[in-house]
Amino acid sequence: MLSKTFRFAILFMLVSLVLSSCNQAKVEKKTLPKNPKNIIFMIGDGMGLDQVYAAYTAKHGNLEMARCNVYGYNKTNSANDYVTDSAAGATAFSTGKKVNNETLCISPDGDTLTTILEIAEKHGLGTGLVATCKITHATPAAFIAHNINRNNYDEIALDFLKTDIDVFIGGGRDNFENRADSLNLSDILRQRNYQVVYDTTAVKEITQGKLAGLLYDDHPPKLSQGRGNMLEIASMKAIQLLDVFEKGFFMMIEGSQIDWGGHENDSQYIVDEAVDFDNVVGKVLDFAEQDGETLVVITADHECGGYALLGGDYEKGTVEGAFCTKHHSGVMVPVFAFGPGAEKFSGIIENTTFFDNFMELFGFNDEN
Ligand code: MG
Ligand code: ZN
Q1: How many CB atoms lie within 10 A of CB 24?
Q2: How many angstroms is it from 295 CA to the middle of ligand 2?
Q3: d(CA 235, CA 64)
Q4: Ligand 1 centroid vs 86 CA: distance in angstroms?
Q5: Domain extent listing, the chain
Q6: What is the mean pLDDT of the chain?
Q7: Of 31, 134, 159, 250, which residue is least crowded by CB atoms under 10 Å?
Q8: Which candidate, 101, 43, 137, 41, places its Cα nearest to that of 328?
Q9: How remote is the CA of residue 138 from the centroid of ligand 2, in Å?
Q10: What CATH number belongs to 34-299+328-362?
């Protein structure tokens, strides 16, 4: 026979066990939101599976993208071609509509398409763009500009004044200050309370407010030619400046030059740029893990070069790459996602699904 005290002690233990597990369930629900407050969308331009695996090999198997718990593939074709260009590719991401190659946020019927960045801005979220190309180049431009031709860089720069974007950092100073129409857009930006800066040292010193970082006259150099950790400095500064928005933020970060390694059929160029991009993915995931309310989605607009790994060495971190074109290829490309809402990016999805998911996760119903 158990003593009365002992039976009471067991009962007490059982009751407290049930109560504490209830409490735990409550706490877990609170710390794991279903929808993200912030979305950081990272595009490795031209980054197919072989480009990712080249970075994996070069980093001796320590790929930051592998920290994501959701994987998928995205179908990259544009409205008029099996093989997309970067303008149509990024427009599908930013507007949820497939458009013709070369066009930025203009439908095949000539309609102007509103972007997720513009919609986020309208709803009072912070917004940002960071790239290792000129900021007027196709990928970042597709989040803010509307133009029938991606090469109209001076016109595209003007579109940066039409949206109240909070942070943008890349190259392309000439499109703002050395223009055919001799307007100085940086002066206008300053009148609108932007801090306009020209190097990473100055970027680091900014602690709050709006920022336009025009770090190079044209494109930033290759990593191997002295770009340094520009992408990391720019990305982490943008996150710091946007993290103060109570309603959250949307930003796009592009590793622009993985694609250019493909166009040049230069395997080492691809490796350098993909490793640089992946290192920044690691920093962004560190932030998202800490924050708990940030969704990080990483993908590519298309593959470039028909790049194939025919050999490699995990210990030495070297790869032997071959190419079958100097242009893009039509294959689907990998998707990695982490954080609240990540599960929506699994499986084989269209490049237009990113916009649809971003809208739903932010709770936006706007027509675009
Ligand atoms: Mg690009
Ligand atoms: Zn390209």
Answers
A1: 10
A2: 27
A3: 16
A4: 6
A5: 34-299+328-362
A6: 94
A7: 31
A8: 101
A9: 10
A10: 3.40.720.10
**How far is the C-alpha of 19 from the C-alpha of 335, rounded, in Å?**
41
What CA–CA distance (Å, rounded) separates 214 from 167? 11
297-349 pLDDT tens trace: 999 999 999 999 999 999 999 999 999 999 999 999 999 999 999 999 999 99
* Cα–ligand 2 centroid distance for 216 (angstroms): 20
Q: How far is the CA of 166 from the centre of ligand 1 (A)?
A: 21
Cβ count near 10 (within 10 Å): 11
The ligand with the least distance to the CA atom of 131 is 1
Q: What is the pLDDT of residues 139-152, one digit of tens each?
A: 999 999 999 999 99
Average pLDDT over residues 80-98: 98
> Which structure tokens are listed for 5?
């005290």
Q: Which ligand is nearest to the CA of 138?
A: 1
**CA distances in angstroms from 39 to 69, 250, 295, 340, listed in the order given:** 16, 5, 5, 9
Which ligand sits nearest to residue 90's alpha carbon?
1
